[in-house]
């Protein structure tokens, strides 16, 4: 399993010390923002918003709610997290994004989120964000072959010095970028949870919802039930609105809402690895060129590598094959929520595939981390984003497949609009209706695409 560094642990401790960790229903009223008072009608009722899940999606929703001038004065925003912020895919994902790789209904999510990332990472001083070129690299099958290429030499990283086949560009760095998602989550939380910012975090597991029956037959959200990690005692948290944003485990909400919405979900549990920077003869880290790679299927190792050099000199690798598929019923029972063990055999296969491509890492590299996480896949590979039918104040934001990190800022913005204004102004959410499978549905894809072109691990 991934081990937190001492600096990561200290940062988490700082975050937790900056928020209200509650095991009861103590009321919390934040100071009102002068800006909000000027731009919000004074007769609007304060909201008690609860977001279930503090990964990059849930935290982004909280951040955009917090920033919105439409948030009524004296409102509260609570993140209810079962483990710790960014403990699952948001802490172990690659963080790649591409503005022009969307297709059909996802085009807007790609474009909106890519633009917001650049804006927010500057605003939050996120050090790991940068634009970078992306290459398609085919396996070499035993021969060093970088001559079959349509790529200018400066784009080919110096560490790609082993056996490779044809190389071609997928992105020149104008519309492709990366971020380390854990840092982005931490920076959003740090910004929101300063002493007077009105956001709180509760470490606990949601066990159900509370609602009020209305005369028109609908139900209105009144609270969330949860248990803390150190107690099985049920607690109740008042809520006017809830947003379920708990990744693959969001399918538990189907029971909370008495099957008013069907949320079929498959968890794709995949292993990834992280390499330390190689050292020169004097023991100093070698500069790692910032070019990402999408590698072709390599039948020798069963891999389809995605290689992401990071600004700190490490290299993150996923697409290593052998993923396990976790059913909806297993996810509803919280499978792999507490622990998500990696597969050592796939880490070994990825190591062999990567060091075949890179003599530098074969001779000087050192594997630093072996880890695993799950991406949430609805049957049609589109996210669930919208309202729960028959419930007032109930929303789903989950199932974003392999693009959950890349789409996070855009999803946060559109969900904040939906919660506060009753409609989304910047994106058409109809294709993502959470109720679309309540009767029937079809199967889409599991992997990463550039438009309609498969460029990542599919199975």
TrEMBL record:
Region (Disordered): 440-459
Recorded superkingdom: Eukaryota
Signal peptide per UniProt: 1-27
Native organism: Cyclotella atomus
Protein name: FAD dependent oxidoreductase domain-containing protein
Keyword Signal among UniProt keywords: yes
Domain FAD dependent oxidoreductase: 49-418
Keyword Signal: yes
Alphabetically ordered keywords of this record: Signal
